[in-house]
Amino acid sequence: MKISSRVLLIIRNEKLFVAVQVLLFLLCCTIVLIATSALPLVHSGDMSVLFLGLLSCAGSFFVTYLFVRWNAMPLASSGVSFNRNFAVHLGFGFLAGTAILGAQWAAMWACGHVHWERSPVVSMTTMTTTITAFIFLSAREEIAFHGFALRQLSAHFGLWPAQLGISIMFALEHVVGGNSWLNALAGAGMGSLLFGMAAIATRGLAIPVGMHAAWNTGDWLRGGKTAPGAWHPVIDPGYESYVQISGLLTYMLLVAVATSGFWMLYRARQLTDQA
Question: At 5, is the pLDDT very low, low, confident or very high (cuts 50, 70, 90)?
């Protein structure tokens, strides 16, 4: 009984250490983002968002490097690795994210009481800069939440407890960033489950980064971001709440379906590895 108690205590202490370490990792990534956001470079000019994405992404990568070295782990074990298939996987992820957003856009249109009108023409320079910025910003979030942090929690607490924990932390960051609790939990929280499942199933971050960047780019183009895009939504008077709810429900449904698809890929790979 004494031996069993000691083993149980060691296991509990190891899990506690991992949980604290992951929280410290997330805190460091948040500090990097805050510090980057305070730089004068990211508050002036048309390239400000691109600089924010690039510098915060590099900072999160550096934090990951420090933590994997702390644990004597190879960098690839955190999902942050670059191989010959990286560009292909990134492109596939971008196409998958575009398909999800297109389906959700069509579903919102089918629900009615909203349509989109063209905004003033967005220049090619603005388009290129914004898309590149979204790639780096998405990479920063994927590295911070679905790389080292998710893999460590998944290895010690199980896949879905880890997914839920990271999803909550991801939603909290969006609340701090100015999102409402509803949009943070139903929007960012659900998105975290999808991107996290994609990261685990594909054993890397290229596909979730591509999906994340595609969603952010498409949402910007259709007027879903603060900065004006190529279109803007026009909602029938009195139907604002209806459109918001229908948008969230169609989004949650499609994200749930996509998450299930990556979960099935994950299970198929597990069975193949066990064979």
Answer: low
- At residue 196's C-alpha, the angle toward residues 159 and 95, to 5°, is 145
For residue 74, the 8-state DSSP code is -
Instruction: Name the residue among 102, 36, 81 with its Cα closest to residue 202.
Output: 81
Does residue 194 belong to any structural domain of this protein? yes
Q: List the domain range (segments joined by +) for residue 120.
A: 86-274
Q: Tell me which residue of 40, 43, 41, 263 sits closest to 154, measured CA to CA.
A: 263
* H or E element in which residue 117 lies: strand 114-118
pLDDT of res. 1: 46
> Is position 188 within any domain?
yes
Give the ranges where 38-158 is alpha helix by DSSP (H). Answer: 48-70, 86-111, 124-146, 148-157
192 touches 173 (CB < 8 A)? no
Q: Which residues pair with 117 in a beta bridge?
A: 232
- Give 41-65 pLDDT, tens digit per residue: 777 767 888 999 999 999 999 999 9
46 in helix, strand or coil? coil
On the 0-12 / 13-18 / 19+ scale of CB atoms within 10 A, 129 is: middle
**Cα–Cα dist 155/150, whole Å:** 9
What's the full length of the chain, in residues? Answer: 275
Six-digit token string for 241:
């709440």
pTM, two decimals, is 0.91
In a domain, 246, yes or no: yes
Domain count, the chain: 1
Let me know if residue 41 belongs to a domain. Answer: no
